[in-house]
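We now fix the convention by which a protein and its fold are recorded. These numbers are not coordinates but entries in a learned vocabulary of local backbone shapes. A record is reproduced here so that you can trace the correspondence yourselves:
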Amino acid sequence: MLLYLASLLHINTTPKNENKLKYIPVITILLWLSMVIGYIVYPGFFLKEFVQYPLIIFVSILLPVSFWLQAQARKRFFALFFLGIFFLNISLLIFALEKNYSSQRIVESNVDKGILPEIAEMLIRDENIEKRKLAAQYIYRHHAVQMAYKNADTYTLYAPTATDKEQYRAYFIRNAEIGTARMNAIDQLLSTFFLLILHSGIFLCLILFLILHEQKDPPVEI
């Protein structure tokens, strides 16, 4: 496909080839606008992998071809227009990547870290017996683990109340939701990063390919 496109993109194109190629810039703009409007109006559908990946690939191929066509036709404004679309896409992807990274960090900060050492130390080292009991209560409400706390010269196993059990169930559900949100945030982060690499990689590689092909195999005047 790339060789076929490259064979058509010489400066000295024939009228037949020009007829084949003149619609590519228009198709590129329509496809790009459809993608942008789709992300805004129907994000739930257009953000699905089986939709956005083919769209990104097609736009990534058509953008450099359209840019190349306009540059060869000495239409600087339109050539810069397609180049501007590329940089706009890259900027939006970088913005989305930064936003997804921030969201992932926020979700990560709320993920349960297990029994914190400072809380566990309070069970025996805190001078206030009520605080030692509260530490044992905190551990049960967050981890459903009965811990013994120091009570004078002995240790007392914390006996959870009905409220403690209810609190743990609520915390367990919250943790499950956070875990799901964490996985979604990681998936979105990786997906955005891959789209950024895919879009920029295809665009730059295709431009480089067309330049090298143009220099290697110049058109023959007939």
Q: What stands out?
A: Confidence is low (pLDDT under 50) at residues 1-13.
